[in-house]
Design a protein that fits this description.
disordered N terminus; four-stranded mixed sheet; 20 strands; 273 residues; mainly beta; 2 domains; 2 helices; Immunoglobulin-like
């Protein structure tokens, strides 16, 4: 009896499937005309802060039997960038018998910029303390948001045991295939030059090529080892930034108080096109 019940259930499922296929085919024979999906423009311009409804602007869909289908248009997928900030977006709409109409439209993000790296702290470490510079590196993107988990270390010459100037090479990509690379300087310093801590507004900043840059604007405060603010320290600022040429630069800050205690740090500056 058990095998008979299984056989009957199998036959029932098969019969149901065949009936469904025949019903769909019958309906398609009744309505053999596919719906239409059109756009009133070849290229769509959007802000990176778009809402999903903005993607549907200028689209209309209709079907000879079902009438207006515009409110049933579905946003499909985004292609990789054809050029920075420009991709294809696909759309689809179905009629009542599931016949599709597909459209692909070029979309330009007018305020797009490539992914940018961030630092949680300056890449300055005491010799012998042991650390991992890349763990301080993050990234963000105007379309995908936080990309920190996608940052990849592609090169490093850092010796954390020996005082000196080094660098790490990192890269990150967003979902549209825009890959950015940077060679970030790393400083290993002796502990005696870290009695005072210089707090920066940001450890890494981006400056657009040709824009003004004042390194004095990025110092927030100077503190001693106990976290107390140091009043009136002597601050020295040395900047290598050339805001007329794209590249990665540094600003070196040094401070000494009346007791002879000192500290130093570096601001990383990336000048972009």
């Amino acid at each position: 009896m058990k095998y008979i019940r299984i056989t009957m259930m199998f036959l029932f499922v098969v019969s149901l499937g065949l009936y469904g296929l025949s019903w769909v085919k019958e309906k398609q024979l009744e309505d053999s005309t596919k719906p239409s999906l059109t756009s009133d423009r070849e290229e769509m311009e959007l802000s990176v802060d778009y809402e999903e409804g903005d993607l549907l602007e200028g689209l209309t869909a209709s079907d000879a039997k079902d009438g207006d289908l515009t409110d049933q248009i579905i946003v499909g997928s985004f292609s990789q960038f054809l050029e920075p900030g420009v991709c294809n977006v696909s759309y689809v709409v179905f009629d009542s018998v599931n016949q599709p109409a597909v459209l692909t439209r070029k979309t330009r993000f007018t305020d797009y910029r490539s992914p940018q790296f961030t630092l949680s702290q300056p890449l300055v470490f005491r010799a012998g303390a042991g650390s991992n510079a890349v763990s301080q590196v993050g990234a963000n993107d105007v379309l995908d948001g936080d990309l920190t988990s996608l940052v990849r270390l592609v090169g490093s010459d850092v010796n954390y045991r020996e005082e000196g100037e080094y660098s790490i090479q990192v890269e990150v990509s967003n979902s549209f295939g825009d890959t950015q690379e940077a060679s970030l300087p790393v400083h290993i310093v002796e502990g005696s030059n870290a009695a005072l801590e210089i707090e920066l507004m940001e450890p890494l900043v981006y400056v657009k090529k040709g824009e003004g840059f004042d390194p004095n604007l990025y110092v927030e405060s100077v503190e001693d080892a106990d976290g107390n603010l140091v009043q009136g320290p002597s601050l020295t600022v040395e900047s290598s930034v050339n805001n007329q040429e794209a590249g990665c630069y540094e600003v070196h800050y040094q401070v000494t108080n009346e007791q002879g205690l000192s500290g130093e740090t570096w601001l990383t500056v990336i000048v972009r096109e």
